Amino acid sequence: MIARLKRLSSTADADDRFWAFVANEATDGAQATALAAAQRLLDPKGKGSVEERAKGLRAILEGAAPDDAKALRQALLADVKGGDKKKINPDEELAPDWRDGGYPYKNLMRRSSYEAAKFELQVELLKLQAWVKETGQRVVILFEGRDAAGKGGAIKRFMEHLNPRGARVVALEKPTDQEKGQWYFQRYVQHLPTSGEIVLMDRSWYNRAGVERVMGFANADQIAVFLREAPEFEGLLVRDGIKLFKFFLTIGREMQLKRFHERRQSPLERWKLSEIDLAALTRYDDYTKAQIEMFRFTHTTTAPWTVIRANDQRRARLESIRVVLSAIDYEDAAGRMGPSQP
To answer: Of the candidates 205, 204, 198, which has an alpha carbon nearest to the alpha carbon of residue 242?
Structure first.
């Protein structure tokens, strides 16, 4: 400031410019003092009640000159907006209607956050696989859910870096005539894991409670028998030492339509869209009823369901991996898997 004063005094109109400078400095100083006082009053940890601080802020604004009050309001507004931008993580920002049962997150998960979390979880999956092989464990992870909910994508992220000699995917076609004459669970038994193996199932024996029921491929008696026998069958698996995980991925009707449209337009994904999928568009509510009935009979303490909201595919993939890792006490497990998603 002293250097600026010296430069001003060397000119012909030094007096005028000097006093203009002094006035400006005084104005800026007064505004800075008022702003600092206002910021202290806005601090939630500040002294005094909310009413007292509001009264003090009102007094500062009313006591300032019009130009000063305007500058003060703009500075406070910019400070608040800047603080919000710093504090809000877009990956954690909730949707306005999340309390009403809508999808909880306002934004899709950022790719940078997703890739960082996926890397950590996939490292843990490799540790889990090594432990499964070393100790002779058997793990079954089955994926059910709405059409286009992202079951295949979630399975792909499980398998992305696992050793294929100790992990495999089972995705069966519709039953053959020979299989139709067998005990319903028989075609699935031959695909169960051996010692030291992880098996991921893209659809499973729950076809009977879902698509077969809704599309009329199974009669009422067959469905009733399945709902009675499925918990018994799973109980046998768990008591024999198999670690069984059951995921149900669910999406809203609008998201399902959006993904069907994307698949139809993509030459690389068109194969995912079958006639059964298209027929399901008009039977969304029927699938909901079948889903509720299935949970009522087959959600047990021995083999519980884990329902994952999959409108955001990235979050759904991470959550399914996180659930498996958190449920198994494998060797050298990381202490923290990241936040669980609602």
So the answer is: 198
Q: Percent of the chain at pLDDT above 90?
A: 62
* Res. 272: pLDDT tops 90: no
**Residue 105 neighbours by CB under 8 Å, 6+ apart:** 91, 92, 93, 94, 95, 98, 312, 315
**CA gyration radius, the chain:** 31
Pick the CATH number of 99-327 from 3.40.50.720, 3.40.50.2300, 3.40.50.300, 3.40.50.360: 3.40.50.300
Q: Tally Cβ neighbours within 10 Å of residue 45.
A: 5
SS3 255: helix
Which secondary-structure segment (H or E) carries 307?
strand 305-309
- Of 138, 124, 140, nearest to 188 by C-alpha is 140
User: Exposure string (b/e) for 33-43, b if CB count within 10 Å is 16 or more?
Assistant: ebbeebeebee
- Residue 123: count of CB within 10 angstroms of its CB: 12
Which contiguous run of DSSP H or E holds residue 250?
Answer: strand 242-250
Tell me the pLDDT of the chain averaged across its residues: 85
Query: Which ranges in 299-329 belong to alpha helices (H)?
Result: 313-327
Q: How many CA atoms lie within 13 A of 135 on its CB side?
A: 16
Q: Whole-angstrom Cα distance, residue 172 to residue 201?
A: 9
The pLDDT assigned to 70 comes to: 74
Q: How far apart are the first and last CA of the chain?
A: 57
